[in-house]
């Protein structure tokens, strides 16, 4: 895997030691996430919106309605996509050193509108599987009309940065003598028990690929 680029906009200014040029770290952050934030410039002002995504090798796919203006403005401009994981609240002895444990990724580039059907289906599959692994093969497949109503953008991951903070607080030397609790409150994402659609036909059990995601 090629290392991540170091460009004027991906080079970390603050805490550069928290960055990584390892592309595998970028992919791990993306594969662990479920939503991204898509940043575009619209009519001269920034707009950042949450949306789903999927990854296939070194391409990130995002999709939406062909009527979604933020998405449809994408192919003609440079965009920015971020994915963030909140891993812990870092509680320090001093207010100044309170912090957050996190893994985050920032990707820049000009996306391409996917027009070829096979790639469009592969992109949509990646986006679906990111949220509900195993679901693409069991749900009804998209019709030609549904496919036409969905726009899929492909963003190459040529220019990206990652930043990771883990570990305990970093207090000032003299503050370690204080009788104030310090440490990390871990934050985890959990999947609850699936709730059936109230109008679900009787006798249809929760499929294994969904049941197995419940966090014990
Ligand atoms: C959940 C969360 C909460 C945070 N809260 C705070 C906070 O309250 N205060 C604070 O100062 N910082 C916070 N950060 C860190 C913040 O994201 C920036 O890293 C930091 O503010 C440095 O900003 P800067 O403008 O100096 O960027 P620079 O370091 O100058 O950014 C240069 C380039 O480095 C890359 N980069 C910067 N930050 C990140 C990142 N987090 N992930 C991936 N690439 C990055 C980008 O490509 C960016 O263009 C938080 C991060 C996360 C994930």
Write the layout of secondary structure elements.
Elements: H1 23-32, E1 35-42, E2 45-52, E3 54-56, E4 59-65, H2 69-72, E5 79-91, E6 99-109, E7 112-113, H3 117-131, H4 144-149, E8 150-156, E9 159-165, E10 183-186, H5 208-211
Antiparallel strand pairs: 1-2, 1-5, 3-4, 4-8, 5-6, 5-10, 6-9, 7-8
Bound molecules: flavin-adenine dinucleotide.
Flavin-adenine dinucleotide binds next to β5, β6 and β9.
Summarize the structure.
This protein is α+β, with helices and mostly antiparallel strands. It has helices spanning 23-32, 69-72, 117-131, 144-149, 208-211, and strands spanning 35-42, 45-52, 54-56, 59-65, 79-91, 99-109, 112-113, 150-156, 159-165, 183-186. The chain has one domain (16-187): Pnp Oxidase, Chain A.
Key structural traits:
10 strands, binds flavin-adenine dinucleotide, 5 helices, Pnp Oxidase, Chain A, six-stranded antiparallel sheet, four-stranded antiparallel sheet, alpha+beta, globular
Describe this structure in words.
The chain is an alpha+beta fold and 216 residues long. It has one domain (16-187): Roll (Pnp Oxidase, Chain A). It has 5 helices and 10 strands; from the N terminus they run αββββαβββααβββα. Strand 1 and strand 2 form a beta hairpin. The two termini are 35 Å apart. The mean pLDDT is 95. Bound molecules: flavin-adenine dinucleotide.
Describe the largest sheet: 6 strands, antiparallel
Q: How large, in whole angstroms, is the Cα Rg? A: 21 Å
CATH first level: Mainly Beta
For this structure, what is the CATH homologous superfamily?
A: Electron Transport, Fmn-binding Protein, Chain A
What's the overall average pLDDT, rounded? 95
Tell me how many strands there are: 10
Share of helical residues: 10-25%
Please state roughly what percent of the residues sit in beta strands, choosing from under 5%, 5-15%, 15-25%, 25-35%, 35-45% or over 45%. Answer: 25-35%
Give me the strand/helix succession.
HEEEEHEEEHHEEEH
